[in-house]
Task: inverse folding
């Protein structure tokens, strides 16, 4: 099976636009009629549902923000009577009450279908077994993957997250071809296989479907080697539906993830002005759910920073999104260039001599922004240095350190386009807060 839904996934763009526009017109009228919050939003913006002719009018509509969901906690944005809601999920916020979402039977059918499409794109097929190590519960990951995989005709092993011993046992005994989990958990599993001396010949894995948190190409390499898989990106958020808003294709790995845009209409807008940016430019990802019934959202501000672009691939017509660079609140502007600390992290992760503990110190001298990257050496490498002579942070004194310093400085400049001052530090020397957490960014300009 090349596609789960070939008609939709390869639909000519002009027809896809017609379908989206028709769905958007219906949605606007539906929300105006059923959800007091949206009636108020549209009235205040002076827009009547009949003003929305199609997706080209979308930018007229106001954004929906996370705080709106909190203001109407728990069910105030539902557009259907309670009897029609057959499932409720919630995502835990960092503060206070969770964000609540509801689904009708039709919503669950759409959710399952987009996950089934995603699984096929990842390289899964009916008849394969999927070890589902996303958490089952209020989190959308576990049940989302579960229903999608069943719809596709896979045999789901609903092990849920954690319990590494049990995961490793099932991987060997049940021989699943696919595993779904977070990228960081896939790294843990790969490490544990190594520690316990379990060879890849004991497993039958081919595909890992990884998402729910940002990850890098370096992590992809580690997981692919460590688990013997194709590591494929799955993206989504509870407010829009859960996992399966977009997914990478295993034959087009590294070129972005297809957004199932017949259901989720994407826009990228400037994080400060909210204005649309040109195709391919980075900004905040905004989604309109075109078909949801229980809790549709107009122009939902995800706060995720990425870009979207048509690749005109032979395989599918839908638009792709790049990797998530970070959250809008985490974006730094350095000499006019947008910078996320995760971009620096991605470069650091390619160096075995460096640990993942790093910190960016941003300062301003006169009118010039400056960035210093402090990064701790990997402990074993550090010990070797100490043995080879007295330790000093001045890299010029030590050839191994000098080469590392030089290479890191160059790679940061080449990959990110900004020159930064690099300081290589002793393991554990960057101050941690009470909870042991390391602040990734210290901005002295504020
Ligand atoms: O994380 C849904 C999900 C489950 C996606 C399983 C993929 C796999 P939330 O808990 O609502 O939903 O968190 C959504 O997580 O806005 C992003 O910031 C981040 N995120 C999700 N997938 C990715 C990804 C689920 N592939 C928030 N890459 C989103 C980077 C991701 N960030």
Result:
């Amino acid at each position: 099976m090349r596609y789960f839904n070939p008609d939709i996934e390869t639909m000519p763009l002009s027809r896809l636009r017609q379908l989206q526009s028709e769905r958007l017109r219906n949605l606007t009228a539906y929300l105006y009629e059923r959800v007091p919050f949206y009636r108020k939003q549209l009235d205040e913006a002076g827009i009547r549902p009949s003003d929305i002719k199609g997706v080209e009018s979308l930018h007229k509509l106001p954004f929906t923000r996370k705080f709106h969901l909190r203001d109407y906690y728990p069910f105030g944005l539902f557009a259907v009577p309670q009897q029609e809601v057959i499932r409720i999920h919630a995502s835990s916020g960092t503060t206070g009450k969770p964000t609540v979402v509801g689904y009708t039977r039709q919503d669950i059918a759409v959710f399952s279908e987009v996950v089934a499409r995603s699984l096929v794109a990842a390289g899964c097929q009916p008849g394969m077994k999927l070890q589902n190590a996303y958490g089952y519960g209020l989190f959308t990951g576990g049940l989302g993957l579960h229903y999608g995989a069943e719809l596709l005709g896979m045999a789901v092993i609903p092990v849920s997250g954690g319990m590494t011993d049990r995961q490793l046992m099932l991987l060997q005994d049940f021989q699943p071809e696919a595993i779904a989990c977070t990228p960081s958990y896939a790294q843990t599993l790969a490490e544990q296989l190594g520690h316990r001396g379990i060879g890849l010949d004991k497993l039958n894995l081919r595909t890992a479907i990884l998402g729910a948190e940002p990850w890098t190409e370096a992590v992809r390499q580690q997981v692919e080697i460590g688990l013997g898989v194709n590591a494929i990106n799955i993206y989504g958020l509870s407010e829009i539906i859960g996992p399966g808003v977009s997914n990478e294709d295993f034959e087009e790995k590294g070129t972005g993830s297809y957004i199932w845009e017949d259901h989720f209409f994407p826009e990228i807008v400037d994080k400060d002005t909210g204005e649309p940016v040109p195709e391919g430019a980075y900004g905040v990802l905004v989604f309109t759910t075109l078909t949801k019934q229980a809790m549709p959202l107009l122009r939902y501000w995800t706060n995720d920073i990425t870009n979207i672009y048509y690749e005109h691939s032979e395989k599918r017509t839908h638009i792709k999104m790049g990797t998530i660079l970070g959250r809008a609140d985490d974006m730094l502007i350095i000499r006019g260039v947008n910078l996320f600390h995760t971009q620096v992290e991605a470069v650091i992760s390619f160096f075995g001599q460096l640990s993942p503990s790093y910190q960016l110190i941003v300062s301003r001298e006169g009118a010039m922004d400056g960035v210093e990257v402090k990064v701790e050496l990997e402990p074993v490498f550090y010990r070797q240095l100490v043995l080879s002579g007295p330790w000093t942070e001045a890299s010029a004194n030590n050839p191994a350190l000098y080469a590392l310093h030089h290479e890191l400085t160059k790679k940061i400049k080449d990959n990110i386009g900004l020159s930064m001052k690099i300081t290589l530090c002793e393991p554990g020397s960057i101050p941690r807060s009470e909870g042991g957490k390391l602040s990734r960014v210290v901005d002295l300009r504020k």
Summary: The radius of gyration is 24 Å. The chain has two domains: 1-327, 332-443. Residues 91, 134, 139-141, 211-214, 233-238, 242-243, 302, 304, 324 surround DLL (CB under 6 Å). The longest strand covers residues 354-365.
